[in-house]
Design brief:
three-stranded antiparallel sheet, about 10% strand, rod-shaped, zinc, GRF-type domain-containing protein, metal-binding, zinc ion binding, coiled coil
């Protein structure tokens, strides 16, 4: 296997493991900053990048992609919270039933 394919595979792994949402720093450790594209194909489009350069060893990420990832992550969190709330409601209902059973049992003992 050539060294260039190893480098390519490793950089792809880094991209897959990169933080979702808005990046705070590049894979090299440098802080990221936001900039505006001046290209013909993406005029005015915002992106995050490393101050050290634009090659495959440094971060480049479109800002709109970051926002989509953040919205997806928040939707997943909300879904998980809704599931937790449903489980809590079931637990409360079960506990309320147990309390009623205990009240009924204690009232029955008081009549003896």
């Amino acid at each position: 296997m050539s060294s260039s394919s190893c480098v390519s595979r490793n950089s792809h792994k880094r991209r897959l493991n990169a933080e979702r949402g808005t990046p705070k720093q590049c894979w090299c450790g440098e802080p990221c900053y936001i900039s505006t594209s001046g290209t013909f194909t993406n005029p005015g489009r915002l992106y995050y990048c490393c101050g050290k350069g634009y090659n495959k060893r440094h971060l480049f990420k479109w800002a709109d992609d970051c926002l989509v990832e953040e919205v997806d992550d928040i939707n997943s969190l909300i879904s998980g919270m809704n599931k937790d709330i449903s489980e809590f409601r079931l637990n409360v209902a079960q506990l309320e039933k147990e309390i009623e059973v205990m009240k009924t049992a204690s009232e029955g003992k008081g009549e003896e």
